[in-house]
Amino acid sequence: MKKNKKNLRKVIIVSILLIFMWILGFYLYTTYNNIEINNDNYKVTRLKSTIEAQTVDKVQENSKNVADIIEETNRKVVGISKLKEPGDSILSKITESELGLGTGIIVTENGYILSNEHVAGTKYSKCYITLESGNNYDGTVVWSDSSLDLAIIKINANNLEYVTLGDSDKIRVGESVYAIGNPIGFEFRRTVTSGIISAKNRSIKIEEDDQLSYMTDLIQTDATINPGNSGGPLIYPNGDVIGINTVKISSAEGIGFAVPINIVKPVIDSFRENGKFEEAVLGIYAYDKEVIPYLNSNYRINFDKGIYVAQITKNGPADNTALREGDIINNIDGIELNTMNALRQYIYTKEPEDEVVLDIKRGKISKQIEIVLGKK
Question: Could you tell me the pTM of the whole model?
């Protein structure tokens, strides 16, 4: 009797549980089955496939744009040749393969071309210019600066495509760049290499032909630069020229240098607008703090900003003024100076006989000095 009661109790409990589970299941089914999904607000996509497709399209689009821009820039790059052996005429029977070949860029529509001085030569030198179209011109160097290793050449041509000059003061380490030039020889003309800006404001010591010189405030890049690339442009992916390729470290790979384009902009503007450039000079030799470590013990001096006056040119504009060797120039006409390029760039905007005001520091003494610029 007791056993039958226990069995009956188990049956009742199991039945109650089954009924409860059925009621719960029915409730959940009817609840979720009535939820509305608005197809207008939700779209199902395969994330991986979509992302991959977008990435591929973006890369292809960017690659196409860069290729188009480089192709356009290449039309504004020229070959610059000088005879390896003297001849009667630069248009003699010597072929381009027998010429020393360098690179330049067209900077105005009326035939002004920018390159290195060591490619084109010093002022009044003659050279041979080959455009991308294959047209050849006699070129004459109308301006050059040995300390910058830059030169401007004039050819008798008009309606030329010319490059866009960027702002080299705003460059950042790690940005992508491309170098264009004519490395090794004529058969590799207009070679394009890519890299990044590895560093900026670099100073290097150059020993050549038993002479010692310094180049300051250079852009360092790992874009491959070889002999013949000299004078060619260093450009952003948008085509803006930010530097002129000039030298490389021969004992290491991937260390090349370009002169920042901003330094020469005032010179180009003057030739474009006036057809000439009257170069003003301050009449000093000075160094910024990046060069001091390369110098001998005579120049062991510490300063945080400004430029150090190492020598005053005899009978020059700064001679017989209150300026002294060893002074630190902090400002010129209120513009802060920390590099030699900053000083050169400002002086290039002035004309001979213009007056400038220098803020200098001499030990603990600070003073202003007025100097009338001379003509180079």
Answer: 0.76
